[in-house]
Amino acid sequence: MHTVIGARQGGARRALLLRGCRIAGEIAAEAGRDILVGENGRIARIGSRLDVGPDVAVVEVRGALISPGFVDVHQHLDKTGVLRFTPNPSGTLQGAREAFAEYARKAPEEDVTRRAARTMARCLARGTTAIRSHINVDKDAGFNGINALARLRSEWADRLTLQIVAFMTPHPNQDLAWLESNIDAAVEQADAVGGTPAVAEDPIRYLDILFAAAERHGRPIDLHLDEHLNPERPLFDAVFERVREYGLQGRTVLGHASVLSALPRTEFERIRDRMIDLDIAVVTLPAANLYLQGRSHDMLPPRGLTRVAELIRSGVAIATASDNIQDPFVPTGSGDMLEIARWTLLAGHLRGDELATAYDMITKIPARMMNLGADYGIREGAWADLVISDCEDVSALVSAGPDCMQVFAKGRPVAAPAFPAMAAICALENVP
Fold first, then answer.
1. 249-283, pLDDT tens digit by residue?
2. Which pTM value belongs to this model?
3. How many CA atoms lie within 13 A of 118 on its CB side?
4. Contacts for 165 with CB less than 8 Å, ≥ 6 apart
5. Which Pfam family is an annotated match for this chain, by its short name (predicted)?
6. Burial 64-96 (b: 16+ CB within 10 A, else e)
7. CA-wise closest residue to 183 among 131, 136, 222
């Protein structure tokens, strides 16, 4: 495999033919497929030995695997990269919430913009072409985060699909009246309505505020639900009632749902069946749940994840995502969704023969949650958001990852970052 040359002339977009591909999910006999990317950045044709004119740049990819771009359906771009400024000595969820709240009181919009753009660039270079980010709106952060991300959503539209969740964040002694009076202004800038009911002082009233705003603005719901392991206070039934009341079947996503792993099997199965009935999706966040949960257990600390394997094998739509990247909630992270898929398989008790399932959890399943529709995937008319790799198939892509990879975003190659000094040294030593 080699880097694409000639995709643009004089800065103008040019049609491009990727010849000799293997398309992710197709059978091995289909190797040798061609993908024509139009000047508009969308996939124009898919076939075998396509004929194109002399104005089309042709690149022989020699059997490389072509996957649609990865989808990170749950991030927190307003928090990314603040680790060194926000110590969390306890390593707990509440410790992380308090640390970021203190930082958010003095962080200007420019700070959020700079950190978020850096993480977006890192994610894109690693194959992520769509992100949904929860952005705090509360008395501490105000509207700084959501204003910054709304601008980035527009500025990056030619490279990356960004959706914003108005994450109406309750804190102790910050009454719900403030959130209720500000939610409309926040949701006007957002693509979805979100929040974290388990930490609200009045979870039922809080849920009513969120669902009513979603109905007024025609937005879907994306909640952090029961990100804890206390079986005495799950809020699933309250959510289910409002999903049905407000007609949000198929438009509700529940992040974390950690408490499902702490409930008796019969209760879990009852909740699972209602999720299926209401077409509610789930997102597991292994990095955060492994890091934050179970620290008070003296013996056999729990993994902290929801029942990943049982949910997906039962037909619940469940994706996996990064959650936080280098902040008090998750001190690590590179924006690599293949890494997250591996963590999910290992920590979520998937089997070795379910590597392709973990791949689906970072591609087509979260794409449906974001309602990307016909814009996503290896299909004619979709955006040419592509990951080209030297892997044999999607199982190999997840299990070991590529030695060589090229990312396309809306039909244009994404340049991999490099140190100019290193390039000069390689040239001196005749290193290719």
1. 999 999 999 999 999 999 999 999 999 999 999 99
2. 0.94
3. 14
4. 132, 133, 134, 135, 190, 191, 192, 193, 194, 222
5. Amidohydro_3
6. bbbbbbbbbbbbbbbbbbbbeebebeeebbebb
7. 136
- Per-residue model confidence as pLDDT tens digits over 16-73: 999 999 999 876 546 689 999 999 999 999 999 999 999 999 999 999 999 999 999 9
Half-sphere exposure of 151 (CA within 13 A, CB side): 13
Could you tell me which residues come within 8 angstroms of residue 93 by beta carbon, excluding any fewer than 6 positions away?
227, 228, 292, 293, 329
**Strand ranges (E), 160-287:** 161-168, 192-195, 221-225, 252-256, 281-284
For residues 80 and 119, give the distance between their C-alpha atoms in angstroms, rounded to a whole number: 7
Amino acid at 229: L
* Measured distance CA(55)–CA(142) in Å, rounded: 51
Show the tokens assigned to 306. 């929801």
